[in-house]
Structure formats: C-alpha cells, structure tokens
Amino acid sequence: MKYVILVGDGMADRPMEALQGRTPLEVAATPNLDALASRGKIGTAVTIPEDAPEAGSDTGNMSILGYDPLQNACGRGPLEAANIGVALGPDDVAYRCNLVTRQDDVMADYSAGHIGSDEARVLIETVQAELGGDGIEFYAGVSYRHLMVWRKGPMGAQCFPPHDFSGGSLAEHWPAGPGMEVLGRLIQASWPLLDKHPLNRSRIARGELPANSLWFWGQGRPPKLQTIPERFGLQGVVISAVDLINGLGRLAGLTPVRVPGATGYLDSNLAGKAAAALAALADHDLAYVHVEAPDEASHEGSLENKIKAIELFDREVVGPIINGLGSYGPHRILVMPDHATPIEVKTHTREPVPFILYDSQRLRRSGQVFSERSAEASEKTGLKGTDLIAILIKGED
After folding, report:
1. pLDDT tens digits, residue range 266-292?
2. In a domain, 78, yes or no
3. pLDDT digits (tens, 9 = 90+) for 133-146
4. Which CATH number is 325's domain given?
5. What is the pLDDT of residues 147-177, one digit of tens each?
6. Does any domain span residue 77?
7. Full-model pTM
8. Is 175 inside a domain boundary?
9. CB 7 within 8 A of CB 47
10. Residues 158 and 211 both lie in one domain
C-alpha cells in the first residue's frame, strides 16, 4: 500500500461577494480534486485547536502529521532550523527572520516582493557579518524566509507575524516582553545596513521592492517528536519549498526531497514536485507533498492568484499523482489545506478545513465535489486533524 498526503496551504477560504457568495475553491477549475471527492470521502477537520497560540502552518501541518499542537507546539523557528541543519541546544531559541519591505513605519511587504533566494542569501550573509555575534547567528533560507538563532536566549517575547499586519504600523507591532531590547536593536540596526546595500539599490532601480528590514517572529525551542517510522512502521518523504515544512518532516522521520525550481510561489515547479513524489514512492511508503502558493496569494489579497494557485495545484500536482499511482497498485490519498487563509483578512484563521480521503480499494460514488460547502454538508464534520493520518494509514471509516 502506498500513501500520499497532498497539502494545498491556505487553500480554504470564505464565501466572497466578488464571487457571488462562492469561495475560490468553488470557482476554480479542479477536475482532479473533484474526481477524488466523488469517489472518496469528504468532510471537515480542525487542524488549529481553539487553544493553539497561533493559527499557523506549523500548527496546521503538525496536526496533519498526527502531532497534537497543544503538546508539541514550538514555533516555526526550530522547525526551520531542523531543515537548514542548524543544531539547537535545549536552551537556544530559534526565530523566523523575514526579509521585509518597510516604508517609514509601515510593513509594506512581508516578503520583500518575494525576493529570490540567491539575492536574499547575499543580504543575510551581510547581516551575519555586521550584526551577528554575542550569541546571535543568522542563517539563509529560501526566498524571504530566514533564521535567527539566539544561543541561550530568553523565551516569552511577543512577536507578530508580518503577514498579519501588511500595510500596518511597525511601531504598533514591535517586539515586546523578554528580549525585546535585543530584538528591537537588531531590527533597527538592519535598516541603514540594508538601505545602503548595493543589491537593494539595484532592486529599486529595476522597479522591485527592496529587502530593507529584518523582522523576527515564530520563535521557540527544539521539540522532540515520535517519528512516523516509529509510530506506523512506514518510510516516507516530504516535498516542499518551505523550510518549515521540510524541518517538520525531518523531525517526523521523513526524508526531504529537493526539487529544482520549487519556490513556494506561483512560479514553483509543481510538476517537478509530483514527479519527485512518484519517483520516491518506488522505495518509500508515504509521500507528503506541500504546495505553498494558495497561502501566498491569500496573504497578498489576490483573488486572481489564489484561483490560479488552486488550479495549478489540481492540474500539476493532483492530476499527475492520481495517474501515476495506478502503477503502484493499492493506494490511499489524503488531500486538504493545513488551515484556511481567507482573502478578506489576508491571514490564517481557525475554522475547520475540507479534506478528501481516497482509497483505491474502496471506491465510492458520492458524486461530491471538493469545496468547503460540500465538506460541511457531509457526515464527517469537525474531525480532529490529528486523527486523519491514522485513518488514512489504517483505512478506517
């Protein structure tokens, strides 16, 4: 038996006036998702528990992999450190470090115009050379997503995800609590350093947004997780352009598979991800494939890009994997978002998300399509997100 989990990050949404009361998932052309839904089971699952501190992708993907976020939550930083290969001691704190665009006191863009990884690496290396030291270390990641490690640093700071206040005031969302002085000093010190950097001057000359500020959030200490091989006796891979997901996969005992051209945005090599998943299943049991683009489009508030991202996910990931799995014999597929990211609020929310459970040996004729509305009308509503992987693997009703 082969198992595939397909995650369309932030794919779920709310009915929109611009779509005559429909959601982007209802409007998008998704023949492959609809085919799975019509022959499988659909429902809704809670991936963000009510008491979870944040409705983030770390929480949502942790739930999908079967780990209770309330017991294992650690923030994004330690997960991204695990993927980058940065060893953390028990008293170290890892922060997500965004390269962002500031305009005076405004968070103008949480991603610095989705800056490319090569350019971002140059900037982070400069930051490390000028601002690193005294227990502070900077590491380059992918695109705008990077890492700051504070060796033996304090916990308890209040930090705000930059995508939660796009267009809002930096001062109103400034770090607070333990360590705030150091965090604030580093952010402010990055301004003249990045403003005068030749790379940012070139970006401005090309009409692109400068990456002219650091921003810290998603901090935590390293977690300890029982792995999927230990829990289920399965060997698996994780395929994502996002360090957070690959790091969580590593901690869960999955092997990250790098796909050239995987960016986490609309230009990502999604066909390459599907091909990599199918190739990996030749000698693995499970493939966890994560696609970031719907979430990024939601943070931007772009309805056009969100619909496009969902359609790309359906056409370039879901379709090829459905077709390719036939050669492996019996298989099961779980498809779902990790959380909702409604365009109207441009950030993650806590409502239950739709899922599909498909078993090639137990085909159904439900006639359903994959959407929030269809899932909410099913008999399987409000399931615990942490239960789905066991249902998938054990083949339970």
Report:
1. 999 999 999 999 999 999 999 999 999
2. no
3. 999 999 999 899 99
4. 3.40.720.10
5. 999 999 999 999 999 999 999 999 999 999 9
6. no
7. 0.82
8. yes
9. no
10. yes
The total number of structural domains that make up the chain: 2
**Percentage of the residues of the chain whose pLDDT score is greater than 70:** 100
Q: Domain residues for 323? A: 2-72+224-394
Q: Is the domain of 59 the same as that of 155?
A: no
Query: Does 390 lie in the same domain as 344?
Result: yes
| 242 occurs within a structural domain | yes
In the listed set 220, 253, 271, which residue is the last one of a domain according to the structure?
A: 220
